[in-house]
Amino acid sequence: MDLTIGDLSRQTGVKIPTIRYYEQIGLLPSPVRTEGQQRRYGPAEVRRLNFIRHARELGFEVDAIRQLLSLADDPSRCCGEVHDITKAHLGEVKAKIARLIALRDELEAMVACDNRRISECRIIEVLADHGECQHRQH
């Protein structure tokens, strides 16, 4: 397989500037180049880029992806570190969900305003004074 960067982009659904960025930061290795300096990619790069894309869709940060790729490059290793990285990410996701639930609840309470005058508006009161919020974390 001898894919151009455009072919790689179409095959993986990753935009060309993003592919170049991943090469720049070392998530993708520098590709083979033709005599005309065009990038060329093979099946290994397709697999790696699909891995990166899917990890990003799941919300993993670049540093975690870098660690996961390094671990994936050594298939004989124990997967305990992979588990630890994923468990830490899950904890971050749960914390974000808790903050979003608090945010949703606060916004629902705010929009319960009965559309009286601005001087009596619950939304304006809460925005002006965080102490009026139901939750402290949002």
Q: Short summary of the structure?
A:
It is built from 6 helices and 2 strands.
Give the arrangement of secondary structure elements.
Elements: H1 5-12, H2 16-24, E1 32-33, E2 39-40, H3 43-57, H4 62-72, H5 80-110, H6 122-128
Structure description:
- The structure is a single chain.
- The protein is mostly helical and 138 residues long.
- It has 2 domains: 5-77, Multidrug-efflux Transporter Regulator, Chain: A, Domain 2; 81-132.
- It has helices spanning 5-12, 16-24, 43-57, 62-72, 80-110, 122-128, and strands at residues 32-33, 39-40.
- It has a two-stranded antiparallel sheet with strand order 1-2.
- A hairpin with a 5-residue loop joins strand 1 and strand 2.
- The longest helix is centred in the last third of the chain and has 31 residues, at 80-110.
- The protein is elongated.
